[in-house]
Amino acid sequence: MLMLACWGGSAQKSVIKISYHRFSHDQPVENQDAIVAFADATRTIVTTAGNLAGTSPKPSEQFHISGDKIIHAALLAEGQYIFTVDSASIPAQKFELKPESKKILGYNCRKAVIIVNSNTVEIWFTTDTGIRAAPTSLGITLGTVLEMVRNGNFAIRAQSVEKIRSFPASVLTAFAPARPLDMLTYRDRLWKSRFTTIPIFKNETINFTDAPAPHDSVFRYAKGTVIARKVKFPDFPAGSRVFLDVSSRSDGDAYDRTGSVILMSDATSGTFMDGIKNGAQALPLYENGNGKTYRGVARSAGYEPSLELMRFFTPFGAGKYNTIKIKGRTWQDSAYYRQDITDIADALRDREVWIAANISNYDKGGHKLSANITIHPEEGTAKRPGFILPLFNTNSVLEVAGQDYASMFDTDKGLEVPFELEQDVSDAVLRYITTGHGGWENGDEFVKKPNHIFLDGQKVHSFIPWRDDCGGYRNLNPASGNFPNGLSSSDYSRSNWCPGMTAIPVDIPLGNLKKGRHTIRVAIPQGKPEGTSFSSWNVSGVLLCK
User: Fold this and answer.
1) 10 Å Cβ neighbour count for 286?
2) Distance CA 445, CA 3 (A)
3) pLDDT tens across 235-274, in order?
């Protein structure tokens, strides 16, 4: 570790120490780390009470201000020290002085106003001390800032001003690498240090090939259309928010495709991983009397289906086909998807699991995909489900490996899944994802169809999954087909999805459930085949219970 003394110099005799507290709507902010500023005639150092005591959570930051220069120094969560030098922000501050005045802690104060990012900030400052000081760099050229009010409802107010003999030794030294970072890199490092990032996939190819080969710890299956790796997650605290980020771009495939990210336990058998590794024939059959068989879609004795973390849809060729020119269109290079998956965080916490991603396609170039999961600490204790029970997933992730399309909704029975509870549960919720597909213009992809959910024979929920905002994703779809009426294929409304977006889960309350056997049923009036065209529905359901 390199320790760089900042500013240097001997102890000063005319140093002031100001303690500031934050207020929201005139009420003190709870559990706050008080701001503390030290200043003399030549410099100001802004830190926190927690920093001084060594108790601040990481990352922690303090500012050293002298003249028009600000040094930002931060101790990151991983124990690294970084700093940057800002010489531009202080000269850019332009204030409007107001006639109002008042006393704060016995000091005569004047008012100044500045607009920052559309926020109106009132600064109350005094020149009585002869020293420049503030809780931030804002207003420090005016004198000693004793109160700062943003938009009339959030305030930082001085609670005490005292004279001390010298700067504390702990704030005179900034811990930093030998060279400062540029401001953008500093802010990026500081921001990313506030949460934990678990890399899943990085620029992995998902394509159609006869010889899929593993890459590092990533395995490729189903002729390259499925990638999977085993991931170990930390024991993160309750209350944390968990997000899944995915990006995809075409590397040859021009079409909109169904993609998904799924989770399987690390069990040696009895999960969807059996089918990923050995082909769809290794998965148990589901039959509903329509004469067809479907593999791996429903929970059964000794078998657990995949837990769908995210379902996304690739756009028409974003990336590879950005060379297509249309006046007034600037194509996005890739599609970016971000989803809050906090409700199934317990399926990740302190576990090693298989994470797989698929994009069903038949192109040798296919797509490039990256994914990571971020864990964000948050104050308070979130309500956590007592257990997470994957019930069904009819998405044909293994289409290329022999898994049939989910056309079981052509009968009244639809999809019927029994499950067993070992104890009474309260406030059960079905996390339900649904999208309709196929049949061209008269098929269920483009026709509104209700989804009916039954629990133990009683209907508990019905709704029509539909998206009519697909035209808003046009800049993601350079290769989208164009029609004589002036619309493109990507413009058309669809059954709960658009090219370039995710399908958002729906939470369906199921109430309190007793110990024992229950049955969940999904019924959809699926359209009939037209020639070689047919409709299907990809639905997944996870039971969340206390």
Assistant:
1) 23
2) 62
3) 998 889 999 999 999 999 999 999 999 999 988 889 999 9
Length of the chain: 546
Distance between CA atoms of 455 and 226, rounded to whole angstroms? 33
Q: What is the DSSP string of 473-537?
A: GGGG-TT--B-TTS-BGGGS-BSS--TT-BPPPEEEEEEEE-SEEEEEEEE--PPPPBTTB-EEE
Question: If residue 278 lies in a helix (H) or strand (E), which one and from where to where?
Answer: helix 273-278
Q: How far apart are the first and last CA of the chain?
A: 47
Place of tokens 């060279």: 179
Question: Is pTM beyond 0.85 here?
Answer: yes
Q: List 39's β-bridge partners, or say none.
A: 16, 44
* Backbone dihedral angles phi then psi of residue 427, each to the nearest 5 degrees: 50, 50
Q: List all residues 6 or more positions away from 509 whose beta carbon is below 8 Å from its beta carbon.
A: 427, 428, 429, 460
Q: How many Å apart are CA 360 and CA 366, to the nearest integer?
A: 9
| Eight-class DSSP state of 274 | H
Q: pLDDT (tens digit, 9 = 90+) per residue, 131-180?
A: 999 999 999 999 999 999 999 999 999 999 999 989 988 887 655 556 88
**pLDDT tier at 224, thresholds 50, 70, 90:** very high
Split at pLDDT 50, 70, 90, the class of 278 is: very high
| DSSP conformational letter for 56 | P
Average pLDDT over residues 78-93: 88
Exposure string for 255-273, b = 16+ CB within 10 A, e = fewer: bbbbbbbbbbbeeeeebbb
Q: Tell me the CB-side half-sphere exposure of residue 321, using CA atoms within 13 A.
A: 22
Cα–chain-centroid distance for residue 340? 5
Residue 507 is encoded by which pair of tokens? 């939470």
Distance between CA atoms of residues 454 and 413, nearest Å: 11
Of 45, 44, 43, 72, which Cα lies nearest the Cα of 60? 72
Cα–Cα–Cα angle for 84, 85, 86, rounded to 5 degrees:
120
